[in-house]
Amino acid sequence: MPTSRSYRDSCGIARALDVVGERWALLVVRELLLTPQRFSELRQALPHVSSNLLADRLRELEHNAVIRRSPERVYELTERGRRLEPILVALGDWGIDAPEPSAPAALSATSVLILLRGAARPDPAAPPTVCRLELDGRVWTVRSVSGRVEVQAGEPATAAVSLRTDPRTYSALLTDPAKLAGVCADGSAAVVGDMSAVERLLRSVQDEGKSSSPMSSSLSGSAK
After folding, report:
1. Whole-model pTM?
2. Residue 165: phi, psi to the nearest 5?
3. Could you tell me the maximum CA-CA distance found in the chain, to the nearest angstrom?
4. Which end of the chain, N or C, is less surrounded by CB atoms within 10 Å?
5. d(CA 55, CA 81)
6. What sign for the dihedral angle of Cα 96, 27, 134, 143?
7. Low-confidence residues of the chain, pLDDT below 70?
8. pLDDT tens-digit series, residues 28-81
9. Cβ-count burial of 115 within 10 angstroms (0-12 exposed, 13-18 middle, 19+ buried)?
10. Which CA distances in Å does 178 have to 114, 168, 198?
11. Chosen CATH of 12-97 out of 1.10.10.10, 3.30.200.20, 3.40.50.1820, 3.40.50.2300
């Protein structure tokens, strides 16, 4: 059953934690930052949470107007829930120095894509480039335009290149783009189309993201 526990503290921090401070709640919010998801998709992204506990967190977040559920049973953030995004990004920056979890540790596609979006600094003078990115069977559109990277769920209308891999391999590539040829050779990744477009996107994190975004430093830890 959903928790009814409260800190019984009037401070805004305590009241916020009454809403999103329970175990797994903020990770559910993280997974919904880029796209709405079904229960089964959230379970896949958060493999270490039980179905019952996930259901409890979803009910609590819905009750507190952080998320909403459509008639098709798809969960998405409300406007109130979306206001948690900068808080989660700051929390991710703060957590860089925390110890790595013991294996096996999960790494979701959303986690890696949030890092990519925040850390990539493509050349503003370069023409817009669209990459089709498939991570663990789910397709994303990654667009480099005007010196930033945009990420959307779903198939692009057109793409210069398609990259298929898993989140952990992609995280390793963001840390060290030189691994691209090797992971393609061993079957951990597959590229169709303009290989240089993938290389430019990876280097936009390697060359500039680390110096401009503290959050990008966690890429190396995530790739271990």
Report:
1. 0.88
2. -165, -165
3. 57
4. N
5. 17
6. negative
7. 1-4, 206-224
8. 999 999 999 999 999 999 999 999 999 999 999 999 999 999 999 999 999 999
9. buried
10. 22, 15, 11
11. 1.10.10.10
| Residue (of 88, 28, 16, 21) closest to 58 by Cα position | 28
- Closest-CA residue to 160 (of 127, 121, 208): 127
Six-digit token string for 92: 């991710």
Extract the tokens encoding 115. 């890092």
**Rounded CA separation 20/83 (Å):** 12
* β-bridge partners, 135: 138, 165
Domain 109-222 in the same topology as domain 12-97: no
Phi then psi for 36, rounded to 5 degrees? -60, 155
Q: How far is CA 139 from CA 132, 134, 195, in A?
A: 7, 4, 18
Task: Look up tokens 């992204």; give the residue.
Answer: 45
Which tokens hold the place of 216?
């990008």
Residues 6+ apart with CB under 8 A from 116: 142, 149, 151, 174, 205
Q: For the domain 109-222, what is the CATH superfamily, name and number?
A: SCP2 sterol-binding domain (3.30.1050.10)
